[in-house]
Amino acid sequence: MSHQEEEKITQNEVAGNGAQGEEKPTGEEEFVNIDEVEEVYEDVDGGEGPQDEDHSMDEAEAEEVDVEVDIGQDETLEIDMSNNSWTYFDKHQDSVFTIVSHPKLPMVFTGGGDNKGYLWTTHTQPPKLVFEVCGHEESIISGGFTADGKYLITADMNGLVQVFKANKSGEKWKKFADLNEVEEVLFVSVHPTLPYFAFGANNGSVWVYQIDGEESKSLVQIMSSFAHTLECNGAVFIPGKDENDLRLVSISEDGTVVNCNCFTGAVNYKLQPHDDFKGVETPWVTIKNYENLIAIGGRDGQLSIINNDTGKIVSSIKTLDDVDDIAELSIEALSWCKRKNLSILAVGLVSGNVLLFDTQQWRVRKNIKVDDAITKLEFIEDSPLLVGSSMNGKIYKWDARTGEELFVGVGHNMGVLDFTVLEKGKKLITAGDEGVSLVFVTE
Questions:
Q1: 324, 339 Cβ separation under 8 angstroms
Q2: Taking Cα atoms as reference points, which of 121, 151, 115, 154 lies closest to residue 136?
Q3: Closest Cα to residue 38, out of 125, 121, 145, 135?
Q4: CA atoms of 196 and 222, how far apart (whole Å)
Q5: How many CB atoms neighbour CB 358 within 10 A?
Q6: C-alpha distances out from residue 96 to 296, 311, 376, 388, Å
Q7: For residue 320, how many other CB atoms are within 10 A of its CB?
Q8: Distance in Å from the first CA to the final CA of the chain
């Protein structure tokens, strides 16, 4: 048996352990039909959730299987095959880089290194394929739905951005428009309420488009900014007074932070490394906003908090000092707790540390440590519950008030690159580096 065949068998075994008694579909792809989509709407309205919850397990109940794989030269690699997932999706043939959930339906989009994207259901066991995104010739690294769920935006490492539109029931999708303005897209950010999206590029530019589905039935360029000199690594829309008040804050590898008026292109403020950050030149890699505050994380462990109303820096913090390798300091994830009277910002580092900052005094109240890099953090709506993923192949749920570990999802044999939270945290769905997405039922 070849090494490639062994890898494929291992991948399928890992994905399959958590779906007890289910058979993977064979032959022709099984797409969801109109009746099943109507059933999806009933699930959303009724809040029923999955009907097969007897398949869910906590970590203690997970089936533990250790498999030894011969990798040649008298060496073996031991893989932990423990899996407590409810079901899985494994149609990707390469790493799954991004996953986003539909705002109204139990449906997610995954994009991967196989240049493919898939829409699939999250309430069925096994998941059913809704739509296959074609047309990309490089890895799909980012995507998002508009707030009304009518449009899906996908972007790849060749700079191609595609927009797909759903019919009224959501069971069919077709291509609406595409554009290719840059050499490589690094991220897509969708406005939280309006039909706008932004993307940043490797040349430092950032672009904003409106999806006009009524009049011109096309994509309308609202803004293009070239205020950064190096890669634009992230951006967030800032909710304004009305739809005429559209602002975007972007960060860059060159250490600048720029707030732009999307309609006029005017720069409201631009923060420079030496002038505004007191001589600290930090490549900014993550950004998250909450109310009038913006948190930005650096590749060297620097954390800065900006008052977006004034453009002033509220606090600047060096997160860790006792790390030998500077790469361990990179802040890969940020998430604000939105629960009333609980002021916490979660910060995740390559070192595996999850730092929970008190946002009143900007001191660390808890330091949670896992054994590999943190890839993403997300608070569950307005609760104190924090979800995090790691390159150790696990996904966690913690109580941020105490740091208590409430759930650990296992089943991947490579890192978890992304995840999405459904049903107020009752379901967590992962994007695995080995090409598999696992669905976990946590309650």
A1: no
A2: 115
A3: 121
A4: 9
A5: 14
A6: 25, 36, 14, 17
A7: 16
A8: 41
Q: DSSP letter at 5?
A: H
Average pLDDT over residues 260-273: 94
Tokens at 148, concatenated:
């009304």
**DSSP assignment string, 156-205:** ETTS-EEEEEE-TTSS-EEEEEEE--SS-EEEEEE-SSSSEEEEEETTS-
- The Cα 304–Cα 292 span in angstroms is 14
The predicted model scores a pTM of 0.84
DSSP 294-347: EEEEETTSEEEEEETTTTEEEEEEE-----SSGGGG-EEEEEE--STT--EEEE
Nearest to 249 by CA among 223, 281, 275, 210: 223
pLDDT recorded at residue 138:
98
Give the residue among 228, 157, 143 at the shortest CA–CA distance from 186. Answer: 157
CA 332 to chain centre: 11
The token pair at 123 is: 């309430």
- In angstroms, the CA 160 to CA 96 distance is 18
Report the C-alpha gap between 137 and 97 in whole angstroms.
15
Q: For 293, which DSSP code?
A: E
Distances in whole angstroms, Cα of residue 22 to Cα of each of 16, 154, 251, 323: 8, 31, 45, 46
User: How far is C-alpha 165 from the geometric centre of its chain's CA atoms?
Assistant: 21
Lowest mean pLDDT among 11-15, 243-247, 439-443: 11-15
